[in-house]
């Protein structure tokens, strides 16, 4: 038996070392290695030995202290130290997971809440003061006065962007400006619910533009999943009691504008080097500043001469000047906040959760607007809206499925 053992031990020491599932260096506190660097070259799947043989090897290996601590660590049963580490780390992992879930839930709650406040306050403001170009500009300007002090007070790292990068961002900012003003015009012309139903066509426009401009083609099922969106919007448009071509065309223009913004962003990001401190929130802040300068002269030309008389007319009834000012500031602040929180919310979840959350956001806004403004809605309009919104979710899931399949 001793001869067999020597052969076995010699063979094991020459070619293998009995190691545990733990790190080799975690065992050093129980033994002293004579040549610990040499041990890195040793490895052995000693599971082929039964339990009795292993215990026999362990007993004999006590003569070799540089290897005993490895031989005495079981592969099948965890050590006391590993159990203590696992038990100690599990509460901290649970706490971290709980904190993350709470943070994500807070993002989604604020995203929905800010979006609802913006849509409701914006609609009330436009009903009392029907100057959408001026309202849209004030909303952008309020965002500038919100974010610039954060940079000056070092509460947020300010972006450092060279002049060349600003030139690259100008097309993105122009598309962002058109998308914002188009949305405001649509919200002022038709019901909030109808605007958001038409804006559900944005994925359809995005797919077409990606195919034409970016030469990005999706599988056929992705295109087929858009049919319910198109059909639902058509049904909702035909049966919409507040339908106007201005509201419909403005909402469609916003779809094309935001799609162009996304495409220009992809092209710009591919051409440029990385920005310093250019987080998604800072990128939106820079776009807001550029859009403010772009929209100002257009708003002054189109509505500047009529602003004073419109203000007098708006405040001659039940609405006061303070209410109008409050409405402008509220809609502008919550417009910026909901967009900023959306970046954090969508950046912290899975794409499927992103799609579901974005779809449910429109549902919540539509239902809330119907409850607040009590707009009449026909059964056919409700069915068409439901089909369109459900189609957006179907498209998102289908697109994600095939994108993962390609990978």
* Residue fraction in strands: under 5%
Overall helicity: over 70%
Question: How many independent structural domains?
Answer: 2
- What series of H and E elements makes up the topology? HHHHHHHHHHHHHHHH
User: Oligomerization state of this entry?
Assistant: single chain
Transmembrane segments: 104-121, 133-153, 217-236, 242-260, 281-302, 322-338, 383-402
Keywords: Membrane, Transmembrane, Transmembrane helix
Organism: Galdieria sulphuraria
Membrane topology: Multi-pass membrane protein
Spell out the key features of this protein.
407 residues, mainly alpha, 2 domains, 16 helices
What does this structure look like?
- The chain has 407 residues and is mainly alpha-helical.
- It has two domains: 70 residues, no CATH class; 300 residues, no CATH class.
- 75% of the residues lie in helices and 0% in strands.
- It contains 16 helices and no strands.
- Helix 7 packs across helix 11, helix 7 packs antiparallel against helix 15 and helix 10 packs antiparallel against helix 16.
- The longest helix is centred in the N-terminal third of the chain and has 49 residues.
- About 17% of the residues have low confidence.
